[in-house]
Amino acid sequence: MSFLELNRVGKRFGEHVAVEDMSLSVAKGEFISLLGPSGCGKTTTLQMIAGFMDPTAGSICLNGRDLTSVKPAKRGLGIVFQSYALFPHMTAAENIAFGLEMRGVPRAERDVRVREALAMVGLDGYADRYPRRMSGGQQQRVALARALVIKPDVLLLDEPLSNLDAKLREDMQIELRQIQRNIGTTTVLVTHDQTEAMALSDRIVVMSKGRIEQIGTPHETYERPASPFVSHFLGKTNEFQGEVIRRAGEALLVAGSCQWPAPVGPSGPVTITVRPEKVGFDSGSGNGVKARITNRIFQGNHWLFQCETECGPAIVVRQNTGEAQPAEGENVCLVWRAEDMGIRSVGGAS
Amino acid sequence: MSTSASVTAAQESAVPAPGKQERSGARAPWPLLLPALILFVAVVIVPLAMTVLLSFHNWGQYTGIEFVITLKNWHEIWSDPYFYEMFARTFRIAGLATLIAALFGAPEAYILNRMRAPWKGFFLLIILGPLLISVVARTLGWALLFGGNSGLVNKALMAVGVIDGPIPFMFTEAGVVIALAHVMMPFMVLSVWAALQRVDPQIENAALSLGAGQMTIMRRIILPQIMPGVLSGGIIVFALSASAFATPSIIGGRRLKVAATLAYDEFLNTLNWPLGAAVAVLLLVALVLIIVGSNAIIERRYSEVFR
Fold first, then answer.
1. Which of B202, B213, B307 sits opposite A81 (nearest CB)?
2. Searching chain A, which residue's CA lies closest to the CA of residue B216?
3. N or C end: fewer C-beta atoms under 10 angstroms in chain A?
4. What residues of B are in contact with residue A50 (Cβ under 8 Å)?
5. Which parts of the chain are coiled coil (chain B) (predicted)?
6. How many folded domains does chain B comprise?
7. Domains, chain A, with CATH or none
């Protein structure tokens, strides 16, 4: 049974549609991400779940209870804001204790729970620090502890890691996931960072222009994107123009000088999509797209090649395994497995 | 160093050209301070020193100012209860005006800050508008509103039934306090406004999500954060109110003397410049002490929280 349920939720600001007809059910203990570019409606959705905005259509239910008319103060949700929104005039411990105080938790129990919360986020000994005297990562941890100490039904994270530098962000991702697994709080994360969404969530909701494009596990959304938007937003994708020719007895997919047996489905002009890391080089005469390497960029653990192929530009990513790699200007053949290739008719869905 | 050379140096340091940073940093263009320094010394330091010196001179009905050093004026202020009463009144009026300005100005700034785009600018202009009008004109406006028993304020209050007979506003402390609080309000609003700009716009939502009600948010979250703004606004309003001249002299009249109007009378009516100078110097010293003292307290109280 779903724990948090969005039922055909919509939000309009005058003429502008921010979120339209959004349905989503989140299971208890699940970590779900709303992923999309800015202006896709993900933050609006979060604000509606939190109760800071009222939906103009549809309903939101939590554990069978309709939240739509419940005031934000009574929803019992924990929220971590992008700016952390810590109370600057209170110490870390006072910040964390605030929610408990509002719930009338007696002082003795409050102290114990604040101490536990601080320990959980690895900030023991920082109880009496003021937020301004803490680093961004520490402030973030206080914000997380403050949201979790009230034992919320749902934890809402609004781009919580976007203000941290890259290294710290990675560490916090792992830690955030660990904490969420340990305490099992249902979590909704809003982010525009696809790696963050993939690293953290059980399921990803990819949004665009106020609508859901795809819901699925990180692996599903990456490997089987439901739309061109998803395939471009999650990672990089090469696109080649090709054609499916169906004749009596055989069907061929042709791109440039190579051809594959065509799968059942579209015919006529098609777009072939392949992830850059699925493409390999073949110097032999195999069934590959002919290309010339225009640019070779070394990125530590992998190489990035920009190629000019007979079917248009392409990028190729190769693990740095220590093997010799083709040089700039070299002529190569790009090959990939047939099952790593996506096909959709030109101007249509896959 | 010639003036043109120093100007060039200043321009270079203002927009540091690559590679020239060390040079302009090493030779700070101190001579550029000269014009401002000369002006400051000429129109602030020298007159101030002369006023202090003047307060030690003697004055006689028939002799005028005698250039001797005496403590006569200071002794007179010290021993005459009239001056006690006058200074007490000055600071009482300033204190009450500050209190009223804070009580009305802080919520005003908060509401203003939450307004939407077109109204925000419009109402900000309305609040700051009085600053564009001369203090005398604004105070005369209050004189019209208060004006005797048939003043608009009294008429309105009687029409609503709050009071039975007219309250005297003109030539009373209450009138001066009300008019001063209004005249000084923009300074308080601006100061609180500036403090509100530093408050995280999500912070109320954060408190809300933790279960706090509106009143709790005001008292526990917003007020502590804008308190430095209220206090610094209070210092400005207090200093300006205590040294205000136009409002107390128009609303307060000739009998309800405050330090500024008394000094003025001593200078221009009694012609006892030394005594007037002593009153002015005393007001200045008292204000400086109060401002520096409260500033130190505020900074110590809030240093931990705000930077």
1. B202
2. A102
3. N
4. 205, 209
5. none
6. 1
7. 2-233 (3.40.50.300), 238-345 (2.40.50.140)
